[in-house]
Amino acid sequence: MVLMSWGQLLAVAIVMLVLFISLYLWMKDVPMFIGKTGLQGKTCIVTGANAGIGYFTALDFAKRGARVILACRNKEKAEAARESIVQATGNKNVVVRELDLSSLSSVRLFAKKVNEEEERVDILVNNAGVIGLPNQTTGDGLEVNFATNHFGPFLLTNLLLDKLKQSAPSRVINVSSVVQSMGKIDFDNLRAEKSFSQHNIYFNSKLANVLFTRELARRLADTGVTVCALHPGSVQTDLLHNMPLHIRLPMRVFKMFLRTPEEGAQTTLFCALADEVADRSGKYFAECRLAERQVNPLANDPKVCKKLWDISCQLTGFKPVDETAL
Ligand SMILES: NC(=O)c1ccc[n+]([C@@H]2O[C@H](COP(=O)([O-])OP(=O)(O)OC[C@H]3O[C@@H](n4cnc5c(N)ncnc54)[C@H](OP(=O)(O)O)[C@@H]3O)[C@@H](O)[C@H]2O)c1
Ligand SMILES: *[C@@H]1O[C@H](CO)[C@@H](O)[C@H](O)[C@H]1NC(C)=O
Ligand SMILES: *[C@@H]1O[C@H](CO)[C@@H](O)[C@H](O)[C@H]1NC(C)=O
Questions:
Q1: Is the confidence at residue 322, as pLDDT, over 70?
Q2: pLDDT (tens digit, 9 = 90+) per residue, 177-212?
Q3: Which domain range does residue 230 map to?
Q4: CA-to-CA distance for 210 and 265, rounded, in angstroms?
Q5: pTM (predicted TM-score)
Q6: Could you tell me the CATH number of the domain that includes residue 274?
Q7: Residue 46 has what pLDDT?
Q8: Residues 238, 239, 242, CA angle at the centre, nearest 5°?
Q9: Ligand 3 centre from 70 Cα, in Å?
Q10: Rg (Cα) of the chain, in Å, rounded?
Q11: Among 138, 189, 194, 196, which residue has the most ligand 3 atoms within 8 Å of its CB, making it the best to mutate?
């Protein structure tokens, strides 16, 4: 066997360094939303706005002059976020409203308050999400991860629809994930009746976000309400804090390759604010552009989207008013 010479070793080292730097530059090449859209007189709701991607989404809306509602479960963290947003933007029209998406009664209470107190809702960002909670049944008989990521936002969006329609042109943005492409929808296991896995239930719930975006867009055709789903990129946030160490540790090591939460908010902002999204209702975005090719084929089956919608109505107790018309 011939050992490598110093020259060869150096060549290998250089190639590896170049690869490493290219990977870094590629991962960190994040398109930023540069639109100047102003939001004076508009009202925006961001769920999970006390941290991560949601915080920077809310911060940007506040900079643009919107009234911003931080819809959060953890009140203390939300108040701290509010203070720092007010300080950074000088916009005092930022409020905290309590919302626990894993509880349908909390969702109803939140929606009732918004419907009573707010004149309008122009942008709803369904951003809050969770991964890795152990299998646990909520007070509503739902599985907690799926309830937080899908059933809660489903009910919330539906309860706010009249406000959104009255405020049209308005938008609903669903923060999904690229992992939706690995998701499946097993209608007999939406509550973990048969099997449970931390990853799969997350993948499936993120796929459900896309199916709902499709079905809602169909139902809202010609109302001036645009709905879309998106992947924010791989972002340095606390999202994985419930996951086991063998998942969290590699992410720590690769942290330098991941986006900052501010970079992670860019596609959300693009979907909420860019003019070209207005007539792309029901679509899926990533990297501040259309990314339909990444969508799970299940999302292109209207029957599956419709069925998930119907089951979600049953399991959340939501009754659409003019169902016969749809
Ligand atoms: N980070 C990524 O790489 C990545 C990739 C793809 C998709 N996403 C998606 O991006 C979204 C934002 O996540 P992130 O990365 O910014 O994570 P994060 O920093 O963990 O933020 C998640 C937010 O959701 C809130 N939340 C969790 N459970 C809730 C509940 N039951 N009711 C109300 N709020 C709840 C959290 O509030 P508490 O403080 O109360 O827990 C927190 O504010 C998620 O939908 C996630 O699936 C992230
Ligand atoms: C996203 O999609 C539709 C409309 O945009 C909505 O009904 C659904 O509840 C939303 N939220 C999630 C997280 O799926
Ligand atoms: C998940 O938990 C619920 C209730 O705690 C239980 O009925 C169900 O069998 C569990 N699912 C699995 C696959 O362990």
A1: no
A2: 888 899 999 999 999 999 999 999 999 999 999 999
A3: 30-316
A4: 18
A5: 0.92
A6: 3.40.50.720
A7: 98
A8: 95
A9: 33
A10: 21
A11: 196
